[in-house]
Amino acid sequence: MDFGKLTLIGMSFNHQTQESSSSDNSHISLLHALYFKLKVFPQPSQYTVLAAFYLTSSTRPDCHIISLGTGTKCLPECRLPSQGEAIHDSHAEILARRGAIRWLLEEILRERDQGSQWIECHEYMYRFREGIELHMYISTVPCGDASTRFLAAFQDLEMASLKDSTVVTHSEGTAARGRDNYHLFNVLRTKPGRADSPPTLSLSCSDKIASWSWLGIQGAFGAKFFNRGIYIRKIIIGEVLSSKDRALIELVSADCERALGGRLEGGLPSDKGPYFPHKPAIWFTPIAFMHSRFVVGLGTTSTSSNESLCWYAGSLPPSPHSPARALSPSSSSSSKSLSEKIEILPHSNAFDTQSGPSHIGTAQVIINGYKRGVSPKHRQKLKDDKFL
Ligand SMILES: [Zn+2]
């Protein structure tokens, strides 16, 4: 993708602030209940961001949560490992998307074994069944282009002075660093951090979500199995309505509409293959997340948590014939190269997170890009641990 061009696309949008429905809010309450049940919480006086993917069906009122993530951290360029064994980007949205991809790939195996109420096979590829839609929840406005004006409204004086003193020449075709020049819109940005912290190379969540609105969330490997992009129908965002400032809410609504997909409209080809812009609907929910920055204490000594939670639904039972199972495109599974396969192994740490077998899930905790509790010498030996 030529990210440089994206900064020039979509300069104005008509928008209407959408407040989530009671049905949406019941889904968000279920997400929060699952988070509470997982019990991976920040330390006292710390906050985090919660993100999740879930499915709805036109034939039932509830939802099926497929992945959940928390986190606000990202490795700076100077700490990226040479062997690629660490997760670079541990923001909640990114981990939730990784979990969603994992669930999608495992659901293909479940579909082959016992059928699926969510996906179906069509001409040797897979797709969602009719009436199934994918949605995303984020407990606050995603970092990057969507959140610049929202954060500016609550920024503390120390951070404001740092940002105000940073005047950066932003050249077309490059990404701006964090919140530098935060008065500019439609700018691709790297993950934010304090202005005096080492820079990262990861794009902001706003920019990554915008790319998903064009390419889908499934990634290059998932594209081998799904006959079209897996697109987000609706994104529900928290915290915004708590401001009570209608003017600010309208501004943030416009920012989210633009940043999370609107800026791609009209600027990219819409008739080439299975991938074309699908701007997600943006809704705001009044339901507060228990460990959000607003709830923990805005403007106090609260800090962001170092820990990230990754969870995805479903767990494949151990095969009676083999300790591992291979997933490959259904058309010719035996002829694919090793690089086109992924091993799905039984999970020793699967546990029931809600009543009923459909909500058994797998969870991990990530700190500084690595699984919690694993010593450095074992980080490249986790043969039974291919979660993310
Ligand atoms: Zn982010």
TrEMBL record:
SMART domains on file: ADEAMc
MF term (GO), any: tRNA-specific adenosine deaminase activity
Name assigned to this protein: A to I editase domain-containing protein
Domain of life: Eukaryota
InterPro entries assigned to the protein according to its UniProt record, in alphabetical order: A_deamin
Residue ranges annotated for the A to I editase domain, each copy included: 67-314
Gene Ontology CC: one annotated term: nucleolus
Record-level GO BP terms: adenosine to inosine editing; RNA processing
PANTHER family given in the database record: AT07585P-RELATED (PTHR10910:SF62), EUKARYOTE SPECIFIC DSRNA BINDING PROTEIN (PTHR10910)
